[in-house]
Amino acid sequence: MPRQLCSLTSGSDRSRSALAGDEVTIVDLKSKDRVQAEDVTETQLHIYALGYRELTGRDADFVEIYNLEERQKKPRSVDEDFIGDVREDVRGAASALRKNDFPTKTSKRSCSTCDYLGMCRAGQAVAGR
Q: What is this structure's pTM?
C-alpha cells in the first residue's frame, strides 16, 4: 500500500536539547488565558513528539508544560504506549479528512457556545436557533 500523506500544521512552543545534545524536551507554554483540559494538552504534546520523531528520526525524551504565570514547568517522560494511541488517532483523523467524513457530535451545551454555530445546521437545530 503506498504511503498516504497528511500534513498537520502546528508546532510546539519550544524544543530544548541538553548541552550534550542527547536529551530532547518538547515544551508547550501555557497561560491562564487559554486553559484547556489536561488530557487535551497531553495529547497535543504527544502529537508534537510524534511529529518530532517523523521530522528528525529521533525520539523526544520528555514533554513539558510550562506555566507562564507561575513560572513552573511540569515535565514528564514521553509515553510510548500513548504515542501509539495518538498515531492511530492521527491516522483515523487523516483518513476522515481525505474522505470528507465529518459526522456531527452535537449537544445543546457545546453547540450553544460553539464559534461555528452560525454555519452549522446540526448545531443550530440542537441549540434551538
A: 0.68
User: 26-34 — which CB contacts under 8 Å span 24+ positions?
Assistant: 26/52, 26/60, 26/62, 26/63, 26/64, 27/63, 27/64, 27/65, 27/66, 27/73, 28/63, 28/64, 28/65, 28/66, 29/66, 29/68, 30/65, 30/66, 30/67, 30/68, 31/67, 31/68, 31/69, 32/69
* pLDDT tens digits for range 46-67: 999 999 898 889 899 999 988 8
Q: Calculate helix-pair angle for 80-99, 38-56, nearest 10 degrees.
A: 90
